[in-house]
Amino acid sequence: MPPATKTFTFICGADDFIVGRLGTKRYAALAAEVPDEFARETINGFAANVSEVESAVNRFREAVQTVSMFGGRRVVWFKDVNFLADSVTGRAESTMKLVEDLQQILESLNPDETAVLITAAPVDRRRSFPKWCEKNADFTLAGGEGDNITEALASLVLTEAKVIGASFAPGAVELLTAKIGPNTRLLMEETGKLATYVGDGVAITEEHVAELTPNVAEGDFFETAEAFFAGDLKWTLGALHRHFFTGGDARPVISALQNRNRILLQIRALVDAGDVRIGPRGLDGFPKALATHAAKFTGATEKSSFNLFTQNPWYLGKLAGNAKLPTLRRLIDNQQELIATFEEIIRRPHEQEEVLREMAVRCLAA
To answer: Which of 98, 166, 231, 280 has its CA at a distance of 20 to 30 angstroms from the CA of residue 334?
Structure first.
């Protein structure tokens, strides 16, 4: 029995930017087959409430039922659909009924008359409509599964680099995604900036990324954490001065230091137990440690400094290998100092920089 004809194209994913990029390319290919520009139509599917969902679905219905003015095929792009997500609007009973109406519209499509492209992000794939689309549409899950976002971001960077004729040396992509985080738009901009800086034919290295890319994932106070755990008192005091000179607050600095300290505490515990070893490629033995210990972190599956195994393994290796890993006692003392510093800031709210400077001297001057 021949496979069923795919009557429309459905692109979805967790990140609207990745989905949008793929959608733009697919729409350009479809539009190239329709020379009449009046036979091409884009419908905005972004909806903030049920009323807007209804308006969007109705506009889409009208678009696919419209006959081309000069005959021939039409192409309709239902763009930026967001009401398929696990959100207040997406869970509303009225929205569910409208999604059923949308499915009926798609079931009655004649692909020879109208080419339809739908791009949606985010999407709750547990529901029946995405499952139906997966079976009946030319289906693409942009960026891969949600729990593999690190690999998806790295793949996105490498794809963009290939498009603009750039390349990355080993470790550079991982450092870039660790510093930027899941901000796909900024990742694209940084890739282009780095490629322009190094010039044609030169690979982007870790040194380039470290020097030129901002620490967006942890904010401006990332520098303080880097300096503190490198054991460099002068650098730490300078980073604190720069942070407070621009009107910064102590709380994000303490949070960054505590998050880094928690991660290093867990790495040190694994190293001391013999479960992992700090090697030239990061944490040797980490996959085995993950299989042994990850299940013990009950209820802590989201990315968090409280659960070492939710972090990027490459990033963990960089944290542990950038400087000599502190002893377990030193890390516990750091945690106690950070708690005491927070309490001191409550008592001296107008002397935040001084309090943090005193803490840095106590920890690093010894």
So the answer is: 280
